[in-house]
Specification:
Thiol Ester Dehydrase, Chain A; 8 strands; globular; 3 helices; alpha+beta; 6-stranded antiparallel sheet
């Protein structure tokens, strides 16, 4: 499927619709089968023990998949997460950004299914993997 929203359009969308968290994320690449973005890790993302919190990893996975869907459909209101399963595989480095790569596995009429891998910047093995399903509104 062709890209409808590029990095600039998605960044503007985030700034307009999600200004409260837009500064935390940087979209770095949008292709037909991949969206890559970074979580700019700050103290608000850390938990005791010197690692990035699970909710921060979840937010990165969720936002990355949401934007991957919008990249293909355009700014569709009410595309919402209906399921997310996340595997925390390694301790993320607290002093590094996190990189997410989101891939849409199926984009149907009412559901989108995708996969997100997350790495600590500069790391060679994923720290988390998430599988997500989104409900898409009718008449898009």
């Amino acid at each position: 499927m062709a890209i409808v929203m590029d990095v600039a359009a998605l960044t503007a969308f985030m700034a307009q619709e999600f200004a409260q968290v837009a500064k935390d994320f940087t979209i770095t690449r949008v292709e037909a089968d991949l969206l890559e973005m970074r979580l700019n890790v700050g103290t608000q993302h850390l938990r005791p023990g010197g690692t990035v919190s699970g909710p921060s990893l979840f937010a990165l996975a969720d936002v990355a998949m949401y934007l991957a869907i919008l990249a293909q459909l355009g700014p569709v209101a009410l595309a919402v997460t209906t399921n997310c399963s996340i595997d925390f595989m390694r301790k993320p480095a607290a002093g590094r950004a996190l990189i997410a790569q989101a891939r849409i596995l199926k984009l149907g009429r009412v559901l989108a299914v995708g996969d997100v891998l997350i790495w600590s910047q500069g790391g060679d093995a994923p720290v988390a993997r998430a599988g997500l399903t989104y409900s898409l509104p009718p008449a898009r």
